[in-house]
Amino acid sequence: MVSFVDKPKLLADLQARTDRQAQLHESHIAPLTEFIEALRHECGPDMSIPDFDPWDGGIDAEILYLLEAPGPQAVASGFISRNNSDETAKNFFELNAAAKIPRKRTVTWNVVPWYIGNSKAIRAAKRTDLEQGVHLLPKLLSLLPRLRAVVFVGRKAEYARETIMEQLPNVKIFYCPHPSPQCLNTNPANRQRILDVLREVAAAMS
Hints:
By secondary structure, this protein is of the alpha/beta class. The chain has a single domain (about 10-205), classed as Uracil-DNA Glycosylase, subunit E, CATH 3.40.470.10. The chain contains nine helices and six strands, in the order ααββαβαβααβαβαα. It has a four-stranded parallel β-sheet, covered by helices on one side. The protein has a two-stranded parallel sheet with strand order 1-3. β5 (about 150-155), α7 and β6 (about 170-175) form a beta-alpha-beta unit. α4 packs across α9 (about 190-205). The chain is globular, with a radius of gyration of 16 Å.
């Protein structure tokens, strides 16, 4: 069996993706995989919904990273993962590493769990997209009993704030910019802002 080193853009490798898929029914991730499978059945074949990443903490996670919507590379790999072959995932991988947050303590999800673009590019989430996605959060949160912190990554993710606080009134809430190249290249200070927030999260979890 091939042993893969955790690194940015790993899921560009077909064998790495195949290996990751084989882990989807491990005990820590199986309930989330079942959640996704049920959602796909409900939404129908026209909706592309990536899986949770088995290399993250699954139902044992203490930290939920909540982003806007899956990008094209999440659709290509089949996973919401910091190992996807795009610059946003690479930035997020490197920032988590710099903040020294073990990924097994985390799980990553999108307010809008299905792809909302076309074959060329993703579009921005509309209010209706966000409303539909937020309705799914209570079920997801019920599968994450160890959550101690939620990090809203980007402004659109903050649409879920009220639902999160209603469901988990004692959870710690954090906000940071989105790690997309557009966000970081337009304002290079945003990289440091994200890192500062992630270090706050790490300190809060210690």
